[in-house]
UniProtKB/TrEMBL annotation:
It is a multi-pass membrane protein. Component of the cytochrome c oxidase, the last enzyme in the mitochondrial electron transport chain which drives oxidative phosphorylation. The respiratory chain contains 3 multisubunit complexes succinate dehydrogenase (complex II, CII), ubiquinol-cytochrome c oxidoreductase (cytochrome b-c1 complex, complex III, CIII) and cytochrome c oxidase (complex IV, CIV), that cooperate to transfer electrons derived from NADH and succinate to molecular oxygen, creating an electrochemical gradient over the inner membrane that drives transmembrane transport and the ATP synthase. This is Cytochrome c oxidase subunit 2. The chain crosses the membrane at residues 27-46, 66-85. Binds a copper A center. It holds the Pfam family COX2. Keywords: Copper, Electron transport, Magnesium, Membrane, Metal-binding, Mitochondrion, Mitochondrion inner membrane, Respiratory chain, Translocase, Transmembrane, Transmembrane helix, Transport. GO terms for molecular function: copper ion binding; cytochrome-c oxidase activity; oxidoreductase activity. One of its GO terms (biological process) is ATP synthesis coupled electron transport.
Length: 227
């Protein structure tokens, strides 16, 4: 999860988030190089009296500054499209969980089980135990197996919500009357926090999401205890 004064992204926990971080660094380096070049040219224009009148109508210069931006855009667009298709791809999920947004809590249903569903409310500040995080802890965590492809079906029963977990690279809108889907896979166990990322009313900031990713044998024991 994020820590105080953090400037960058959270540590990646899923393959998709790792790809997003690499793409961010790739694009940021291109932006940095372009900005440095523009700053260098501006500084030269302000500090030198030399003029090159022969370049005012040069076809070569116009060709270069037309083709070069196009090449840069292609270098950005191709990896972006690759990641976009990877995020939409769903291959034989091992588990399906349906998530419904409400004002102002989340409800979860494990559709592969006959009767495994619960609501997840934020724990009030006055009831927090030592070490728990304010505005992020819930009474019922979403327990999921790690290193397995999991499909999340996301919708809403009232207004627009958004189910987001930054460290997994997830952010999917919950829209009334529409069923959106996304996939997640964690490469390591742990607790992963998120929040509703769509302004949905008075208590929008009190809709945390907590995923508890555990090994498969622990998940089986948990699911058996919940049935």
């Amino acid at each position: 999860m994020a820590y105080p004064m953090q400037l960058g992204f959270q540590d990646a926990t899923s393959p998709i988030m790792e790809e997003l971080l690499h793409f961010h660094d790739h694009t940021l380096m291109i932006v940095f190089l372009i900005s440095s070049l523009v700053l260098y040219i501006i500084s030269l224009m302000l500090t030198t009296k030399l003029t090159h009148t022969s370049t005012m109508n040069a076809q070569e210069v116009e060709t270069v500054w037309t083709i070069l931006p196009a090449i840069i855009l292609i270098l950005i667009a191709l990896p972006s499209l690759r990641i976009l298709y990877m995020m939409d791809e769903i291959n034989n999920p091992s588990l399906t969980v349906k998530t419904m947004g409400h004002q102002w809590y989340w409800s979860y249903e494990y559709t592969d089980y006959e009767d495994l569903s619960f609501d997840s409310y934020m724990i009030p500040t006055s009831e927090l135990k030592p070490g728990e995080l304010r505005l992020l802890e819930v009474d019922n965590r979403v327990v999921l197996p790690m290193e397995m492809t999991i499909r999340m079906l996301i919708s809403s029963e009232d207004v627009l919500h958004s189910w987001a977990v930054p460290s997994l690279g997830l952010k999917t809108d919950a829209i009334p009357g529409r069923l959106n889907q996304t996939t997640l896979m964690s490469t390591r166990p742990g607790l992963y926090y998120g929040q509703c990322s769509e302004i949905c009313g008075l208590n929008h900031s009190f809709m945390p999401i907590v995923l508890e990713l555990v090994p498969l044998n622990y998940f089986e024991k948990w699911s058996a205890s919940m049935l």
